[in-house]
Amino acid sequence: MYSGSVGCRGCGWSMIARHISSILGEDTVYIVPACCFSIIVGQYPMNALKGNVVHTLFAAAASTATGIRAGLDRKGKEDATVVVLAGDGGTFDIGLAAVSGAAARNENILYICNNNGAYMNTGIQSSTATPYGASTTTDPLPEYKKSWPKDLVGIMESHHVPYVATASPAYMEDFRRKVKKAKEIKGFRMIMVDGPCPAGHKTDPADSIKVARLAVESNLFPLYEVENRAYKVNVKPAQKVPVEKCLELQGRFRHLFKDESGKSVLGEIQAHADQAWETLKEKEGIVSEEYVLTGE
Amino acid sequence: MPEYMEPVIERSKHFTRPETKAGGIRANKPGPPYARHTQQILKGNFAAAEGARLSRAGFIPAYPITPQTTIIESIATMIRNGKMDATFINMDSEHSVFAAAMGGAQAGERVFTATSGQGLFYAHEVLHAIAHFRLPMVVCNVGRPSIPWNIWSDQSDSIAQRDTGWVQFYGESGQEVLDSILQGYVLAEELDIPVMVVLDAFYQSHTSENVWVPDQDLVDAFLPEKPVRGTEIDLTHPKSMGGMVSPEHYEDFNYTYWKDINRVEDLTNRIGKAFGDQFGRPYGAIEAINIHPGTKKILITLATITTTARGVVTNHPDVGILKVRLFKPFPRKSIVDLLMTSGIDPETCQLITVDRNFLGDNEGALHQEMRRALYGHQFKLYGIFAGLGGKDIPPVTIQKVIDRKLEDPNEIIWIDNE
What we know:
Order of helices and strands of chain B: EHEHEHEHHEHEHEEHEHHEEHEEHEHEHE
Number of domains of chain B: 2
Structural class of chain B: alpha/beta
Structural class of chain A: alpha/beta
CATH class of the largest domain in chain B: Alpha Beta
Radius of gyration of chain B: 21 Å
Oligomer: heterodimer
């Protein structure tokens, strides 16, 4: 990736795209639906990536990638990597049917979802990836989003795909290892990356990595991978950090720190994170044993 | 057959296909039996599938919807039996079908698929993108309307897509559908504009007819391999496609598109003539049937309604038919040239559009387009709605249209609802 792309200060996109492209190399076709990265990678006639970039429709990343994959394969370019770079709106919401279709067909595609937890390109509207308790322009104060985000990894791994993982820009070695691993696997692979967004999360751009690290340490964004339906947790924080430590740095949760009712919401978020962490650890045990037993 | 019954095809001096190899393809004489063809009895949908096979389409993203489903089923079977070399993918929706078609074409494949009604409506967003990415392909639509649920013949679906930038042909017979697919690829790949070939549901899609299926080498001589434009995805020459374009540049893309879409009518006539020279069946943007100085009424038709009307007008020497084969872009020049040179009396000859589509407006689409085409001319134009949602248009209905006393050109008539 060339320097000079137009990402916001502290945005995760430019950094992860730089690392992704450095690992995948030039024989790569990037498919970018409507999302922040479609702007970041360059308006006409610019291209910040050293590879083919196809800007496609919001709901059509996985399906466009399917067609490109088929076309490349027919030309004997099976070794080229076809990679989708999408946001959470295009993955969790409007593009989910196409993503599900591509996953169920086990298309030979690497799908990267930069999850910044809202429609940030259109100005911070709620998506189904927006965290419980966050305020957005469509869940405006004094109220806030009152439903939990989808378990995207759970949805994807239930399609029997070979590889699904979460990754964080605060754990770049883990991130790079996962991209390298995904590159070598054939079939549908997805990596969901925690996406710092100073403009949308109301954070100091200098705190992007710090907030992402706290999200992992507080189990709000655990790092794990699911290989052939076998869960493995990659980072187990030595000492659990309370979720408040991560949320208090983000203005989108500021209303939760003002009074008693906010405090009880923080309690709900803490309980939810704890429960999800326990479930994850259970899955790590059970599902991998299943695979051992079946010899897969 | 009287001379005025002969189809009028605009002859072009310009368009010629590449010379075939010595000892290769001999031109067919007009009219059956056609050399280097096999006569088969095929339903319209199967004729469409044969067209896709003979075109050597390499990528078929597919999703079922009545009444087109037998097209994709037939293609899937031909691929499975080794009769066709293509990648067939069962997609998850028509939106995904057309997005995959877009991706396949971007990667340089010759793409084919088929859809109907709701599927075409669902793909609307992608139709715009395919056209304005300038991706050549041919797609069949078997026409049916929307809510309340109806799966029968109606052109509201395809006509609702007329402004997406796709070229549209309406086929009168299974033969014409097959032939239009072959010609469609030549046109699409010449201009980098996608082509939709529309069939009537059931009356055509599921009705068996005699179809002359050309030999592969005859088709190969007419439709060579897809040309490489340099605009395809190329790993050695990476490029960015479809990124945000500023107001300063956006219009430039529309302008170049406009220049090319204006070539479609003439090119359709030239390709149709070249097709006639090689296959024995010439085509044009329009066809005039029984139009001569003594013609008192002209029925303007799309698709299978034309065939019924052909039969009825044999009893009416003073009634003609103007069949519109190329609907979008509307062949204004061919139509005006025909009417101005036909010797009909504009004061007394009545032009009557027969519309099997309802677009929420006073007039049907064919009537609207004819009004646009005849703007500034003195012809008398009348509008009839008939056959919506698959209601049969038997000869007796065509007879009713011919017998209907027409006085006020502003009156729009629902022939079965008077």
